[in-house]
Amino acid sequence: MPSTIKVLHQQAQQALNQGLYQQAHQHLMLILQQDKYFADAYFLLAMIASAHDNVAKAIVLIEQANALAPNNPEYLSQLAKHYALDNNPIEALHFAEFTAKLIAQLPPQSSLTLDTLGVAYSHIGLHEKAVVFLKKAVLINNKNPSYFFNLATSLKFIGDFEGAKKAYQKTITIAPNYYKAHAGLTGLGGLSKDCNHIPLLEQLFIQTQQAEDRLYIGHALAREYEVLGDFDKAFHYLDSAKKFKSKEFSYSIDEDKALFKSLISQFKGSEYSPSQGFSTDEAIFVVGMPRSGTTLVERIISHHSEVSSAGELQNFGLLVKKMSKSSSKRIIDRDTVRAAQHINFAELGQAYINSTRAVTCKTAKFVDKMPLNFLYVGFILQALPNAKIICLDRNPLDTIVSNFRQLFAVNQSNYNYAYDLQTTTEYYLLFKELAKLWLALFPDNFYLINYEKLVNDPLNEAKQLIEFCGLGWQEQCLNIHQNSAPVATASALQVRSPIHNNSVGNWKKYDAYLEGVKKILATDLAAKVDD
Known about the structure:
Strand order of the largest sheet: 2-3-1-4-5
CATH class of the domain at 278-308 and 359-530: Alpha Beta
Number of strands: 5
Structural class: mainly alpha
Shape: globular
Largest sheet: 5 strands, parallel
Number of helices: 25
């Protein structure tokens, strides 16, 4: 290797590690001017593309690097990870499995490659496999906080809460300002008046000037103050952190009103022929407002011997976006709904089923528990006319408060409504109107289940639920705490316990802040009575 290329390569790596992407890019382009077959230049360019959220470009560049230097575990693990990020779990699993076999034959192993491979498996939804490689990564390198954080996350999903707690604590020991780890740790519970992290969290809350970091700490403080019964302080930290973060983006509930209006306009009064879709009855969708009991229902159904859980898949919505050829920024909006009218729905249905194969096919049926799929019900039943869709209906105040209290995926525009109690209330009302339409249009495929009835009379409600899914009743369905499948949702802790009604009426703890919410709900109810 010419000395100039060697120096440029080192400089590019250093610049990339420091986040100096433009400088790194310049060094890499100079390398390729001298040697267009220099594989690592393409790989490092891929890492720059990835840092700028250009996953598709990153994949092309990693594949180029892999073509020039085949069987490089670092390249292959990154390829697996990026295919997972690109919502292509089949390719992601292919490269993950290939990498796993390869590194087993090539000791000593790289901690970075092992961590990347673990993250790839985690994104696919195969958290048990992820843990195997993430544990190996921290054994080799116990100084990297991100490795421990990734391990903690997957351990939480598989139900190893004690292991997750230790991994989060290790993350914080190495990097005290790893804000996401603080939020993850408080989310595991085990807090009390004599055992909490409030002084440290309050210090961090004041210290950080980054909205995203403050959001993590604000939610962590809210959880800890809730345990102490101090709901005024809990609300203070929630509200102030959310307001601080919401200043970073421009959101109006009118955007979502336009989306819901377009859905109702397109589907109301329309008739659809089952013959236009893909014929399979294996898909069961559990939908509804987030934090309304969707995970509980998914655990009941997926504990049936003929059903497995596919987790919360974004596949259907992303396929609608891709096949509609909509160029708008949001995954679903008014423009995408209009453009989706021209989709070949049989192709959409088959593409969706194929896209799940990395985590399905083990049983006759599977559950896709993406709550916001309630937006796609009309499209789902055009594409998969034999699918069953269960929609949760929970007390409005509990639903609204739970959404406001939840730390959703940061910078995910679908949840922008949840930064304010008023917009959360208005969004809830939009959801209720749309759910009413789906029930009227698709009574044989769309089932509305009430959360309060389910937790207060689980046997009868669960039997009806299982019957609607076309399955025979099995007593084990009620024993959700014995369901060992991973849970990659905010309810990971709660659903490891038997069914209970402890969450009913939780809104009362924040009653002092709900006057505006109640007024909006009362106005809506009065308007419906007048109609």
